[in-house]
Amino acid sequence: GEDVEQSLFLSVREGDSSVINCTYTDSSSTYLYWYKQEPGAGLQLLTYIFSNMDMKQDQRLTVLLNKKDKHLSLRIADTQTGDSAIYFCAESISGDKIIFGKGTRLHILP
Amino acid sequence: NAGVTQTPKFQVLKTGQSMTLQCAQDMNHNSMYWYRQDPGMGLRLIYYSASEGTTDKGEVPNGYNVSRLNKREFSLRLESAAPSQTSVYFCASSEFGLAQAEQYFGPGTRLTVT
Cα separations (Å) of B53 from A25, A36, B72, B86? Predict the structure, then answer.
């Protein structure tokens, strides 16, 4: 069935790079997304990538897509305390629904 | 421009009570959605409305009903609340349908059913 898997926790020192990984199952995905959720708030789209792309860079964010392995990653360069949040990977399925992962909680160490 | 607003922010219900969660967006978006988020889980789609006048079931529709009142507003009703419906409910909207890139989320409604 359709599923999106990601690790639940990640701890990173301030100033280091954070890499959050995600695997998905549906090879027909058209869009893959990264959303950020801060405490007590709704989700906010960080970035997305079309399935025919390998990489997308947007300021401190780099998304890598390996379609063969169905693996998506989000790299945050120079991680700051404001990056502390839950990050959700999601994929669109056949144009009519989006499947979200369970979220990775990013904790920033001083 | 408030984006997506939801009321109430918090609610406690007794089993069997009913209530309606309200959602409104001021971005002139065509599509609106209701999700629930449970601890340690991703978001699960309850219902969505691709355009004014249409609604469709999502992944977990049982126990809920929706109304797309107009282009701006999309409400979610619990007719007879159950403890299993304790959750955080998020409304979202997008200019286009589910396949398109960006959904804008409201701040959420935290519902507890005792």
Answer: 33, 31, 12, 28
Chain B hits for A101, CB-CB cut-off 8 Å, are: 42
**Contact (CB, 8 A) for A18 and A81:** no
pLDDT, mean of residues B100-106: 80
Q: What are phi and psi of B111, to 5 degrees?
A: -110, 130
On the question of pLDDT at B39 being above 70, the answer is yes
Query: At CB < 8 Å, which residues of chain B contact A?
Result: 4, 40-45, 58-59, 90, 92, 97-108
CA distance A26 to chain B (A): 14
**Is residue B57 within 8 Å of residue B66, measured between CB atoms?**
no
One-letter amino acid of B110:
R
pLDDT of residue A1: 60
Give the chain B residue nearest A32 (alpha carbons): B101
Identify the pLDDT of residue B99. 58
Do A102 and B99 make contact, defined as CB atoms within 8 angstroms? Answer: no
pLDDT recorded at residue B77: 98
Q: Quick one: CA dihedral B66, B20, B33, A73, positive or negative? A: negative
CB B90 within 8 A of CB B108: yes
